[in-house]
Write a structure and sequence with these properties.
Chain lengths: ~425, ~425
């Protein structure tokens, strides 16, 4: 029986696995983590609105009933397209007949890897916990700080990058400061927290038409976000971010920095023996293969795919559609039939900004504000995997909406002491 | 205005703070973590049944409306009872007029601190995440293991200590293996997992009467737990636990070990200048003061208190009652009135074992099995802090009960690779 290996159980890999559910194949799903993550809501975990289990589901459980499939929690360290095999982190080698690489993307610091510890990005649950801890700890530090200048540094939050994640983070941070934490501190006023969104280009949400970008900027400013476009970050350290704009260089005193400026494709792309693009993405044929290898498909954020001569965006609907096409093409080729050409169906774009604030584009229709936000809410809860998660997320959000409380305000680390036993000494990452 | 410092926001500290809500006092609540933890359900987080936010609530939020109180997330490193001050981890010093020490307890490895990394205990959310990760990873490792002997080592779970936590952990581990993970693996059968409960004394749940202990043992065995009493652990390493019993020494090949055998009082007790008992607890007067200091109260697990000539057990109802009495005694003494004597009200004891299995003792009434389990369920959901948490926990449990699924099966770490960027390399703790 032909063996199909799928690397990565994100939206693309999962869609491919499901499309092959009834196929006469042996499938191995390999993922480094044990869960499929509903990444569009990851910023809610980072901002203490949702718990991790609400937006993640164990891969084994999702795919348990697919009897032709084995789930392997493992890291792929090498791909040999000539020898048709994949190497895992423990040195074991798995042969494949067909390979789907859906390894996704990661943060890019544009050559400034030293910034990663200072300004974490948001791709995994661990990233979300780290950011949640930093945000909540910043308010705790501010409360204890006696020096006014340093206190304001703790109360200044900087989000770098005005794409979808950056805008969501900035909008939600303001909500936390103005509503969630209101009345809980004695030495500081959380309302006095500043949230600065720094974007290199001239507008936020650059993937949208200029008029919607402008709507987004207006809504951000109305919420209380200090939006600074045309500002390219040149330096980050523990207490400041420096950026260059037409005025020269500016310095911003801030102790919490979140990175959402750059995305790079998974380094696994470079293992496929074809030239990758500037973002590390792998060029694929209209059938989603790599050049010279009809048995190797690349899908999702890792693929530089074209549809109708236009580049396919790195969004979850595109990944799902690619997953299905790659899966069907494997079946077609095994059956000796002609594979299909990938055509991206664009159902529209949606970006949330904060409470009652969003922008949306569906076909020729553009809208923003409360209606867009309601639409965003509906779409995201609807697409969340699993009936249970949907119910739980809805309950969490209803609670948050009516009470302004956030349900996941847990810092799992504790303050270190000298007095306690070594086994209990947990460092607060800072 | 007199200044009251409360160290620790567990059940005791929180009850004391609430009792002082309307008092003409300035109160500072100091805790190393940002949340009050509903510790009786912590084993559910460790076994992937509940998410962390479901059993924890931000201290600031709980106490926000108490205008005479300031919350400080900080670690106390020193207490000076003569100078009436407390030192924090950043070197700052706070003076008090009255002090309530409610710093609780931690694990004790009976002089074998080297076991702490091999056999984590369960006191904090971080502990729970660590244990959850180890349990879920053990099944993942077993699935990938080709050597039959090693595979069985991965599928053998050892719980050391047959107190309440140990019994809960063992019962729930069997449920995970037999029900939750059923049908999700291809190379192993999770049913073949073994759960061994090792207890040094002759019976489990030694705080209960012998007939209830026997009921507990029967229920554990019926669930599928291998109960080994009269077995004193003498050695732990990565692949085995060795214990001594009347037959001599026995070796058990196991790769996941959970420690619930020993409890030691917080090391802060030693800072009070009085002699502590063997478990590190601080002897207190009937008014809950330490000898020679009417302004220093010790409550909860840290206190060696007596009531009617009998030692007060280290359980949450006792901690709450002590918290209230200590708080009232502060008010009485400020008013120049006689402080009250602590009398422990024993409302009964309850221990859950697993699905439909528990034992209970209320007054002279003893019962076990399904009725005890239903009673346990009701009591625990009822006492969970916060309306929202109660609803969420009930929903989680209803879901788990009817589907055998567990909602928090997330391992937040990923498999490490060489290929990925350093910022993404997260070690799986093992």
């Amino acid at each position: 029986m032909p063996h199909v290996i799928i690397i990565g159980c994100g939206f693309g890999g999962l869609a491919a696995a499901r499309e092959l559910a009834s196929a006469d194949l042996r499938i191995t799903m390999i993922d480094r983590s044990n869960h499929h993550l509903f990444q569009p809501l990851l910023y809610q975990v980072a901002t203490a609105g949702l718990s991790a289990p609400a937006i993640s589901a164990p891969i084994r459980a999702i795919l348990a009933h697919q009897s032709n499939l084995t789930t392997l929690m493992a890291a792929v360290t090498g791909i040999d397209t000539a020898g048709k095999s994949v190497t895992l982190e423990d040195g074991s080698v798995l042969s494949y007949d067909h390979l789907i690489v859906a390894a996704g993307s990661t943060h890019s610091y544009f050559g400034h890897d030293e910034w990663s510890a200072l300004a974490p990005g948001l791709k995994t649950l661990e990233d979300a916990f780290e950011i949640r801890k930093r945000i909540l700890m910043a308010f705790e530090r501010a409360e204890r700080e006696t020096d006014a200048r340093r206190r304001q540094e703790w109360l200044t939050f900087t989000v770098i990058g005005g794409g979808a994640t950056g805008v969501e983070m900035a909008g939600t941070l303001v909500e936390i400061a103005r509503h969630t934490l209101s009345g809980e501190f004695r030495n500081i006023d959380p309302h006095s927290a500043r949230v600065v969104l720094v974007e290199g280009s001239e507008r936020v949400l650059g993937a949208y038409p200029p008029d919607l970008s402008e709507k987004a900027r207006e809504q951000l400013q109305k919420l209380g976000v200090d939006v600074r476009t045309g500002c390219r970050v040149v330096h980050i350290d523990e207490t400041c971010v420096r950026y260059a704009n037409f005025d020269g260089e500016q310095s911003l005193a801030t102790r919490t920095v979140i990175w959402s400026a750059g995305v790079a494709a998974s380094p696994l792309g470079k293992q496929l023996g074809v030239e990758v693009d500037r973002a590390g993405r792998v060029p694929v044929s209209p059938e989603l293969n790599i050049a010279g290898h009809e048995d190797v498909y690349v899908i999702g954020d890792l693929a530089a795919a074209q549809s109708d001569g236009k580049p396919v965006p790195g969004v979850s609907p595109a990944a799902k559609q690619m997953g299905r096409v790659a899966a069907r093409n494997i079946r077609q080729r095994i059956a000796g039939q002609k594979p299909e050409t990938f055509v991206y169906q664009d159902y529209g774009s949606l970006a949330t900004i904060g409470r009652k604030a969003a922008i949306a584009m569906v076909g020729k229709l553009k809208f923003s504000g409360y209606p867009a936000w309601l639409f965003w809410l509906f779409v995201h809860v609807y697409f969340l995997i699993g009936f249970r998660n949907r119910i739980m997320v809805m309950a969490d959000w209803a609670w948050a909406y009516f009470t302004f409380k956030r349900s996941a305000r847990v810092i799992s680390a504790t303050m270190p002491t000298q007095a306690e036993a070594p086994s209990l000494r947990k460092e607060v990452a800072e």
